[in-house]
Amino acid sequence: MAALAVGTGAVGRRALGAGILLALAWLGTGCSPAPQAVIAVERESGGTVRLLTPDCPGMVIRSYSVFRDDEHDAELRNWAISNNSWTQSLGSVRIFEVPKGWRAYADNLDPLAKGVPYVAGMSAGVSGKGLKGDVPFTLDQVGKLKSGEVLVSDGDKGSKAVSRADFLRDGKKACGSV
Prior knowledge:
Layout: H1 9-29, E1 40-43, E2 49-52, E3 59-68, E4 78-83, E5 92-94, E6 102-107, E7 117-126, E8 129-138, H2 139-143, E9 149-153, E10 159-163, H3 164-176
Antiparallel strand pairs: 1-2, 2-5, 3-4, 3-7, 4-6, 7-8, 9-10
């Protein structure tokens, strides 16, 4: 495999983080299509941040991750977990928690802070095909979510709030298009 030279700063960290997500998807699930709205960020009633995926028939989540996407730190700061069983899946996970049957393989992300950009990602397999997605977010955006809303990628390196019900419905459609 050819070496990838990545510079420092926000662009370098974003490229490195995207490269990690791509490598995980390639190693764990084969070729993956372009990111789709198959992952969302939501706020629980107590303020905890959670990653959410739709319940797609045949989908097994391989990994979830969050990385800090700013220029203030030359080192990649991330939290990532992988599914040890590859047979059972989770439709949601709280950031910084490692569910039973999963393992943390990156855990140097500081607690989420206001004004800091992050990117959440997931890698999955659906009926033998790869699926991945990501969504950029800030804690400020998550804090502004209304009840029943989640953040999803807007398809243009940003994010937007949508209804949770719409995300789950549309996410199922995206899973079927793999």
